[in-house]
Fold this sequence. Notes:
The protein has 532 residues and is α/β, with parallel strands linked by helices.
Amino acid sequence: GVKFSHDPGTLRRSSPPAAMPPEKRPLSDSMTGLLTGQDLTAAVRAAVDGVEAIDVHTHLFPGQHGSLLLWGVDDMLTYHYLVSEMFMVAPGDLTHEAFFAMPKSQQADLVWKHLFLERTPLSEAQLGVLTTLQKLGLCDELRRKDLPAIREFFARQDPLQHTDKVFKLAKLRYVIMTNIPFDPTEAACWVKPDARIDPVRQEFADADRVVSQSFCASRFKTALRIDPLLKGDWGAICSSLAERGLPQTIEGAKTFLRAWAQIYNPEYMMASTPADFVYGDADTPRQPGWPTATKLIDEVMVTVAEEMGLPLVVKIGAKRGMNPALNPCGGGDGVCIADVGPLEELCRKCPRVKFLATFLSRVNQHEVCVLAQKFRNLHIYGCWWYCNNPSMIQEITRMRVEMLGTAFTAQHSDARVLDQLIYKWDHSRRVIADALVDQYALLASRGWPITEQDVLRDVKRLFGGSYEEFMAKDLSDGGRAGEQASAVAASAVPPPPLPPSSGDAKRARSRFALARNTQRFCAPGTFGCGCC
């Protein structure tokens, strides 16, 4: 159009400005491949929805391990979350003993009745069942609330083919199992019940006594679980040593782990700590004459981990047996606020050992984020168990991204039933995407260019790539410098006081853990603590 410009004397027509040469025009975001606005939001959600994840901790087994594989609607309905929720609303005359004496299908009927028919299924565990069934194509059966028809669907499935379908729906590269050599039932899937360990060769004596494996090892990877060591349960350890023909000594315990590591070829060794876990000088034996958990950690677990190059995974904050009446379904355990101090001490004391950690209490999440910033041999992962709810997953993920960037693993399922993989990953992806959309929008508002490849790279890290990078990290050289620094720190800071010598040992351990948790932050000296 024609434009006019004012002149002190008259109005005159002005020509439009000359067009800018194409090579000098600023490129639009669509031409450069940079993402902004809704395009950025869509790219983040698509990346999270499509990435193949690594599930770094589960309780699953391959179909070749028979009854150890839990799958199908009855196993979903009798999972401990739902059984515990059912007992909150069931009639008082339904006792735990009577319920657990019923066949599994009858237990499932009661859970379905009280939680899905007589009430609206609003809880995360209840919604999880519905998400899973919907993703498996059982929409008509859900609309009819037809449990028998749902059972018929699962009865028609082949376990191995069903496993493949679940992995595809959950979009998983692989899962890591939990393999317990102290459990005779699980151990029988790997070695014959009477197999012995040669104490000289430190391996199972006869190759023909080892049970051959036919499952897909690239889909189901192993982990060597060693809870009795962190519990200081020397009785359980000695029982397993005797069964395998080993001396009931510290050396025998090391031989036991070495032999099982050769059988499993595990990704890592792992353990869950007891609620009263104490590490260090104040640790006391569980029974007179037993070694302490600290001795077993230092002389068995850490020694074998370092010599075999195995990372150590610790799961901290469970309170076992809170309600023993629910133990038959694994639902009797609760949560406690844990002392992060033992993990800090281990990371500092063992800089050449890689540690992975997850905490059960929401209260511990910020402290362990700070810890992960300070120790390069620590990697935090997932939202475990009672933290595996969308509201907490989103909150924890936001905090971790703000503090750690992409140097953590956003989630693991902790699934015990194969089909749970579907809903646990579906629900997690949705809320993790929400957290990332906001963080990328903030980044874009600062003028930082973001491409689709940037987003895909970051999301891949959060869903397993950072785990693999951490596992491949070589700490052998950096560890020596860390050990020297640790020695200097140990000489500069006085050890915490020992617990009282009298009174109940369990209370003493708890009092000490609380005292140490406070003292770590305030070490008064000539000029005060320097922080408060």
